[in-house]
Amino acid sequence: MQFQSLNIIDPILKAIKEEEYETPTPIQEQSIPIILKGNDLLGCAQTGTGKTAAFAIPILQLLSRNKTYDKKRKVRSLIVTPTRELAIQIGESFKAYGRHTGLRSTVIFGGVNQNKQTSSLQGGVDILVATPGRLLDLMNQGFISLCDVEIFVLDEADRMLDMGFIHDVKRMLQVLPKRRQSLFFSATMPPAIVKLASTILYKPSEVTVAPVSSTVDIIEQFVYYTDKGKKNALLVDILKDEKIKTALVFTRTKYGADKVARVISKQNIKADAIHGNKSQNARQRALTDFKDQTIRVLVATDIAARGIDIDDLSCVINYEIPNIAETYVHRIGRTGRAGAEGTAISFCDATEKEYLKDIEKLISKSITVVEDHAFPLMDHNPEPKPKQQQGKRNVGHARPKPAGSNKQKKWYGKPKKSR
Ligand code: AMP
User: How far apart are CA 389 and CA 320, in angstroms?
Assistant: First the structure.
């Protein structure tokens, strides 16, 4: 199926093309027509399945139908999600898919000064992506009114309940208009979630897609415990192995992507970086060079790597462990396509161990630890990260177990599958 056959309007189709999405994912194929018809939706799907586009695309389309730009814009769609990382990702998706629609969106979340967020709200927005605490806070301060919301999305509902947001959600529901379209997404459907869904949705259509974690079983996964400052040397060392024909290396930041590409290029390994600060032409060139193997290593941020589909990618390397477990699954899913063998390697410093635990929980297996390498983790209790760089958890303070407590082998030796 093509996006065109989902009756998506041209400005959005154009943006989808620019994102280099070729075909809709199963959740998109099923959900987009339901949402465009104006029906409520109960979606059982997790991050990594393309769920965000499954609701963002039709919401943008529905809101585009009757734009009212003569007056100050009002919040016509509200998306509530449990974590700031998810909120930021969803906000970026709305910006990307909606870039030719003229609709305006903004993201609000706690843990940062509110001024930038409130001035963006005061300018008027059509779409608001929010975490529950900051949303209620700014509503109480009079910066947000929900009385014009036409489409409400509750994302990651199970995680929302796990994180204790049920009362916040109930308070939100009290002020949302009764006549509205509601979309409810959850990775799991325990009784408490089904009950909550029934209080929000009206005659919903149901869509269920396979969990993303089930797609990674064929990929061999390894983790190297190392110090932050040794990651470059470790990467260069690993890339000496000629069995790695092509490697997609993920970094957390754009700056990091450039830096890593520079470091490995200096070692005569052909590499380039792609990220949002590069022009579309430069990104396209890097991608083409990588696809035809003119360069061997492509260093990318998650955002820039969206939509990248590369056949015969032999290795994905997580230079940093993603703080959202599903992002890991999505990253490593770039290798091992269509049943082909693939390898995923992750570098884990002491501050990232909690993220690794979350990943192992999501994929329900332990990742093989590689022991005999030249750059082992020595600094088990590094300085905490500066506040703005931290994810939700304050992992910098956690006292990690020594790396040597796990069984380890070099990955291209004969690794044990589990520890
Ligand atoms: P999500 O489940 O919404 O977090 O999406 C996971 C990733 O899939 C994101 O990086 C999206 O950019 C990407 N994605 C979403 N839809 C498509 C598609 N139709 N084709 C390729 N990539 C997609």
Answer: 13
